[in-house]
Design a protein that fits this description.
mainly alpha, about 65% helix
């Protein structure tokens, strides 16, 4: 037990050092108190508009955004969890911290803390501590050729500024980790359903990835009978749809009006 405790302590220390190094390398992002020439302009505008909607008594999940083309109710068909969270945090601080400051810090921390979430999700997947630490170590090194993956280029000042995805990647990893345990009877399916709904509300595509991942996990044989795994998947799906209904229903209602890309 003493040896196990030492290994656990060393693993946690390694992860903290990795996070610290990642945060230090990204420190220049906090100086970006100006609009970037990427999607951050759109994301900050929506966060600020969400605050205005709450203050004026509008529905924070259904309001008009005049900056979008000729005007459009963006929240009806766009994931809003990150903006609502920023707005509530701004109001919780008594408006002492500006929305722009919160936006910059949230974007920075979401990228800087990725190794920590990777380590935690790896442990939820029951991977050995050395493997989990190695996963955390290489997570900041992920890179694609402009494919908007889990990489610096998707989020930073010189990148694409994909703010909603920066939140979704954390929630997705945690969802898959707890989903893996739920399919083995180690966690309840309700929690997994709530996490999956949050993933969807953070980023629709990542929510789809999470749903497909949970279905695939249910097909992996383990000590839990297949019938129980599928029941747990159904429960998680029902809970997820119920929690995410606030955006699922408007999207379905607006379906005939949306211009679908071919």
């Amino acid at each position: 037990m003493k040896t196990l405790g030492v290994l656990c302590h060393r693993a946690q220390l390694c992860v903290l050092l990795i996070v610290a190094a990642n945060a230090y390398s990204l420190g220049h992002e906090l100086a970006g108190g100006r609009f970037e020439l990427n999607d951050s302009v759109f994301h900050y505008t929506l966060a600020d508009r969400t605050v205005q909607a709450i203050e004026t008594g509008e529905n924070p999940m259904d309001y008009w955004v005049s900056e979008w083309t000729l005007g459009y109710s963006v929240p009806r068909t766009y994931p809003m969890l990150s903006y609502v969270a920023l707005a509530l945090l701004h109001l919780a601080t008594g408006k002492a911290v500006s929305v722009l400051t919160l936006f910059i810090w949230a974007r920075y921390l979401l990228v800087a803390l990725l190794p920590l979430t990777v380590y935690g999700s790896a442990r939820l997947l029951m991977l050995p501590r050395p493997v989990a630490v190695a996963s955390a170590l290489v997570s900041p090194l992920i890179a694609t050729n402009g494919l908007f993956g889990l990489e610096y280029g998707a989020y930073l000042w010189r990148g694409s500024g994909l703010f909603t995805q920066a939140l979704a990647m954390h929630v997705l990893l945690v969802t898959v980790g707890y989903g893996f345990r739920a399919m083995r009877g180690l966690r309840g399916p309700v929690l997994v359903g709530v996490l999956l709904a949050f993933t969807f509300l953070a980023h629709f595509i990542y929510g789809f990835i999470g749903a497909i991942s949970l279905v695939l996990l249910a097909f992996i044989p383990n000590t839990l009978p297949a019938s129980k795994r599928f029941v747990r998947t159904a429960i998680a799906g029902f809970v997820s749809c119920a929690v995410a209904a606030v955006q699922l229903i408007p999207m379905l209602l607006d379906g005939p009006l949306i211009n679908h890309s071919r």
